[in-house]
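Supplementary Note 3. Input sequence used for the single-chain structure prediction.
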Amino acid sequence: MMRDEVLERAAARYYDAALPYHNFSHALETIRSGAEIVARCRDDNVSIDEAVVYYALLFHDAGYHEDHLQKGFPTKERYSAAIAADVLRSHGVAAGTIDKVVAAIHATQRDARFVTNEEKAVRAADLAGLAADYGTFRGNTENLKHEYEMLTGRAIGWGAWITQVREVLDFFLSQDIRLTRYYFDADGGSLFHKRTRSNLDRLQAETAGL
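The predicted structure, written as discrete structure tokens, is reproduced below.
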């Protein structure tokens, strides 16, 4: 996937390294996942704009540590998209591309619709960690808990947190992002769903055993 070191340095300023999960390393990890998705799309002759996917993933959690409501935005995704638009505009990116980037970032919101291939790819890349190896999945879950406590100023017990995680992931697992044949088994089942469900079931079983 294309990379722009100057733009990445500009984007990094909108991320807070103190956040355990939604930091710039997470953005770079989603870019790596996005590159794989774009490559698979090309293998299957699925049309996709690589630049839109890259720009959207680079900025999709920009400003996450800030209070989006105080900034005048209803969601963190809307705030991140506005940051992306401002920075990309200042770097000479075409208006049409910026519009697609904004839409792709909006598509990462939990209840959002995702229609274009770019929107699907960005949403899938953002969620890719759910289907990673169990150690990564568990580590991400722990980091998200710590981050929630940091941002809200409220402690939450592990059992209550897992219940909350289950509710969120059950929602994501009710959706199906279809882009290329690579992400489905021989019977047409989603590998993402199977791996995520396996991780979630193992996490819940371990929690029940505490």
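DSSP finds nine helices and no strands in the chain. The chain has a mean pLDDT of 95.
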